[in-house]
Amino acid sequence: MNWNEISVSTTTQATEIISNIFIEIGSKGVMIEDPSDFYYQTKDELAWDYIEKEVFDYGHEDVKIIGYFSQEEDIEQKINDLKERLSKLGDIGVELGTLEISKKIIYQKNWENEWKKYFKTQKISKNIVIKPSWENYEKQADEKIIEIDPGMAFGTGTHETTKMCINAIEKYIKSEDILIDIGCGSGILSIAGAILGAKKVIAVDLDKLAVKISKENVELNNYQDIIEVRHGNLTDVITEKADIIVANIIADAIVMLSENIKDFMKEDAYFISSGIINEKADYVKENLIKNGFEIIEHNNDKEWNCIVAKVNKTDV
């Protein structure tokens, strides 16, 4: 099966907004090409293998948000829907860039394999190393290896938001904890929780493809006995209470979760949230506090933020 690809040229600041629009108009996956991600990443002091800049040369300086649609869909109608949504953004206080739209056909074989050249083994926390399944790597002392095949439309684990989440899990997790991963994507955070000592991990995602890929990665790392991957909404498929809940999604979804996520948290549990752009960090914190949380930690990496919170006992 081949795919129609639509891309929008924008800025890092508008990544979350444009990505949401693609999902809303029915994209089967969203890919972000942000050259600054890779250029900064090669300077990361935790990077195991520095990559030459040329490897990450996309041939453009703009951020491109790319959506994928089946060839059975009316691609011109999708472009019109996209243009209409973009035209309504107006002045939102974020630089949007050119918003230039382009399209092309992507052949299945190319889509499945071409992106792999951008994914290299990375050490992303004190102990965690993320390794693509097709690469060889010699484990060093005290390192814990997560082997990942992220599939065509999910993260490799080297993005700032994922790194901050894993560092937070590593800092706060205790042996025998229960962890819930909301919006599990390729399953990286769930596997990190298991490898760092969680007794049980529940991974949840609305996307059936994410559930499929997460299950495959759980099996690849041999954590089937600890990690259970479920398809659906949090409130529909979970009755358990967790010691740690992690949600690496988007700011607006985190704010919505903050209204009732306490129902799924044990006493003294941590809520680790990321996927939050700089412009929305205060907005998320304000809503967490309003909904009865105490901010424990706020970390920032370039355009992205990770907030760790606990239920404020004075509000219980």
UniProtKB/TrEMBL annotation:
<keyword id="KW-0949">S-adenosyl-L-methionine</keyword>
<dbReference type="GO" id="GO:0016279">
    <property type="term" value="F:protein-lysine N-methyltransferase activity"/>
</dbReference>
<keyword id="KW-0689">Ribosomal protein</keyword>
<dbReference type="Pfam" id="PF06325">
    <property type="entry name" value="PrmA"/>
</dbReference>
<protein>
    <recommendedName>
        <fullName>Ribosomal protein L11 methyltransferase</fullName>
        <ecNumber>2.1.1.-</ecNumber>
    </recommendedName>
</protein>
<keyword id="KW-0808">Transferase</keyword>
<comment type="similarity">
    <text>Belongs to the methyltransferase superfamily. PrmA family.</text>
</comment>
<dbReference type="InterPro" id="IPR004498">
    <property type="entry name" value="Ribosomal_PrmA_MeTrfase"/>
</dbReference>
<comment type="function">
    <text>Methylates ribosomal protein L11.</text>
</comment>
<dbReference type="GO" id="GO:0005840">
    <property type="term" value="C:ribosome"/>
</dbReference>
<dbReference type="GO" id="GO:0005737">
    <property type="term" value="C:cytoplasm"/>
</dbReference>
<feature type="binding site">
    <location>
        <position position="248"/>
    </location>
    <ligand>
        <name>S-adenosyl-L-methionine</name>
    </ligand>
</feature>
<keyword id="KW-0687">Ribonucleoprotein</keyword>
<feature type="binding site">
    <location>
        <position position="183"/>
    </location>
    <ligand>
        <name>S-adenosyl-L-methionine</name>
    </ligand>
</feature>
<feature type="binding site">
    <location>
        <position position="205"/>
    </location>
    <ligand>
        <name>S-adenosyl-L-methionine</name>
    </ligand>
</feature>
<keyword id="KW-0489">Methyltransferase</keyword>
<dbReference type="GO" id="GO:0032259">
    <property type="term" value="P:methylation"/>
</dbReference>
<keyword id="KW-0963">Cytoplasm</keyword>
<feature type="binding site">
    <location>
        <position position="162"/>
    </location>
    <ligand>
        <name>S-adenosyl-L-methionine</name>
    </ligand>
</feature>
<dbReference type="InterPro" id="IPR050078">
    <property type="entry name" value="Ribosomal_L11_MeTrfase_PrmA"/>
</dbReference>
<dbReference type="InterPro" id="IPR029063">
    <property type="entry name" value="SAM-dependent_MTases_sf"/>
</dbReference>
